[in-house]
Each structure stands twice: as structure tokens, then as C-alpha cells.
Amino acid sequence: MRTISVGVSDTGRKRAINEDSYLTDDEQGLYVVADGVGGHNKGEIASREAIEHIGNWVAAARNQIEAGFARNARGEDLGIYDVRRALESGVQQACYMVNSMADQDPTKRGMSTTVSALLIRESFAFVAHVGDSRVYRVRDGEVLPITEDHTLVNYKLKQGLITEEEALHAKGKNVITRAVGHKDYVEVDTLPIPLFPGDRLVLCSDGLHGYIETPEHMRYFLDMEVEDAVLEAIKFANDRGGKDNITALMVELVDDDE
Fold this sequence. Notes:
The structure is a single chain. The chain has helices at residues 43-60, 62-73, 77-104, 152-158, 164-168, 206-209, 219-222, 226-239; strands at residues 2-10, 20-25, 30-37, 112-113, 115-121, 124-130, 134-139, 142-145, 189-194, 200-204, 246-254. The protein is of the alpha+beta class and 258 residues long. It has one domain: Phosphatase 2c, domain 1. A hairpin with a 2-residue loop joins strand 7 (134-139) and strand 8 (142-145). Helix 1 (43-60) runs antiparallel to helix 3 (77-104) and helix 2 (62-73) runs antiparallel to helix 3. The longest helix has 28 residues, at 77-104. The radius of gyration is 18 Å and the shape is globular.
């Protein structure tokens, strides 16, 4: 299979600076969305540096990653471990780098970023995730959230401290519990995803998914052609207020015979 990808980032209607960054690299099969945290503390630098560092790391680890995907294709469990470890290491190194930059420059103190990264080879993908950006998989009209938000509200929900109804209206919904660069180490969620021709994967910042009440709420624009879908996603968020920066990135898996 081959990939078709389109990414768009928009400042939105309320912010002066766009702190979101994204990467689409069909050659490496690497796609990343990062939402900078820090406002005046240079969140846009954190997201941009994290994206660049992860891209460079994946390029440098190409042999390890290719060997891992090959082992995975042969059904060897260690192949999954190798790829997950390589992608996780890239995010960890980005975390250390962003944290170090903030330590060395008082004007950058406190900057950090979310990261949702997707690495695809043929019929398999790996996700590495920190924060509250999201990855969705779209298959046969069904929209499935792949990642879990690392937020205070979601933590309380999982612990049974609040109900789903209370979570919808809870204060501090954007308070994240994990971020790349906040400390020199961060726990990274990684997971493998089998893929099929026709699958679509959507990566987005909370400036988009914050307006999505349920995954099915996205259906009408996800059925469009990839470029139109991404542009409509940006319009969707802006039409509902555009209170935050908005980034949408879509990857479609296409059969080589098409």
C-alpha cells in the first residue's frame, strides 16, 4: 500500500500565535502533530523543535525500524518491540532536548508540547503519544479513537472520581498530565495498528477535537477527499469559535493497484 497525506494548521480566531506544528513525510511514513504548551513561554518553539527532532531521529534509526517492520511481517514479536522502542526513543530524546533548551534560556522556561506520532510501513502502523492531541482511525465509515488523552479530567474519569456527564462540563479540561519537555523524561504511550486499504488515519490538536462531541461528529467531512476533508475540518473548528490553534492531518492508505 501507499499513503496519501495532507496536513493543515490554522491559528484560529482567538490566538495571535500558532503554537501547533505538524509533519507529513510519505517517504519515511512518518506523521506527527504537536501542540505547544506555554503561551508566552514559547510553546511554538517546543512543538517545532520536537517535530524536527523526531523526524531526524526516525531517519537516523531507519535500519533498526526497517528490520523491526520486517520481523513483524514475519510474525516475530520482537519486531513489534523494536519499532515501538525506536519511536518511543525518538519522543524521549525530543523531550530531553526541549527540556534542556528551556533550562538554558529563561525566556523558554516552562515550554513543552503534546506529541502524537504515527509511523507507517505497508499494512502496519505504530503510534507514539503524549498529551491531548489525538489519533483516530476511520474504516468502513466507523471512526475509532486510537489514543487516550493525558488530561486531569480524563484521569479523574478513569479513577471513577467523576462521571462522563460531569467530565463534559468539568473545569480545566485542557490541563494535561503529560507533556514533552515539561521534565527531562516523559512516559510515552505506544501501540501497533494493523491497516487495510481504504483506512484513513486522522491526527489533530485539541483545537479541532475540542469541538467534537463524539467521533461520529466527524463523519461528514471524513467522507470527503483527503485534501477537502482536512480543509473542512479546519473550517468546522473555526465556525464553532476557533478558540484555539487548529491542526488536522489525514493519511489515507491506498492499494498500489489503484
